[in-house]
Amino acid sequence: MNDLLCKIEDIGIVPVLCLKDADKAEPLAKALCEGGIPCAEVTFRTGACVESIKRMTEAYPQMLVGAGTVTKKEQAEQAVRAGAKFIVSPGFNPEIVGYCTDHKITVIPGCSSPTDVEQAMEYGLRLVKFFPAEAAGGVKMLKALSGPYAGMKFMPTGGITEENMKDYLKLTQVAACGGSFMAPEKLVDKGDFISIRAMAEKAVRRMLGFELAHVGINTESRDEAAKAAGMFESIFGFQKSENDNSIFAGSYIEAMKQPFLGNKGHIAVRTNDVGRAVGYFKRRGFAFRDESASYKTDGSLGAIYFRQEIGGFAVHLVQK
User: Fold this and answer.
1) Who has the most CB within 10 Å: 51, 62, 122, 284?
2) Is 227 a catalytic residue?
3) Where do the VOC domain residues begin and end (predicted)?
């Protein structure tokens, strides 16, 4: 996939927006960016679409703003002139896809059948919109549809909610989910951007699913680590298990056999997707120890340490 599509996958959520008033475009973009979702698909369902795209991209050039519900080539042309970085269509329209590919414009056409996907592949596309996701069979249908097409990624849209989003994002074939649940039309119309920011933050946290994994204790030797782990076992019944570098007491306490990162030790935080979590934190200005990264057998990021310590503890993300 190209760099823009990789950024969309990194963000993981694409808000689908229906703006009736372009004056709300800039504060809405601000709310989404501050809420951790610097991306939006502004639909051609109203006459304010083009002007909204223009205002969003001018105010927040770092934001990935695209045009959605594009059903005519002329709409794609207007959107790109306004600053849209990508085009999304509800179905597979060869005229729109052909125009975009000829002009090197990122296009994400709607696909809901093997025929649609194969057409997309013929144009060299590697990301398509699975639409309407829930009505077309949901996660079960997407699994079946994506099975024969290795390398194709999907952006399910249509019926996606905060509750079912994680079921889609668990699939390796899913690059991102599109939906309006973090910026519902009624809140946009009211201009309640404080609530939209809070809903965006909640959606990101739900997607990443942070939770405490374990606490690491730095000791000076294997004997000291065994003693520390043994005390947790005798007091709380956390059974000891040893590996090359440490001794665990249950899954909660890790006693290091020699001092490791962190003045006092380390704290591990589990997440649904380490790669997306790293992207999220980097956009917020956090740095990571690249040398600490470990990878899973499929090549995806499995764990990595923040560069900054918290209260004398090194902190690292680990894959659930």
Assistant:
1) 51
2) no
3) 211-320
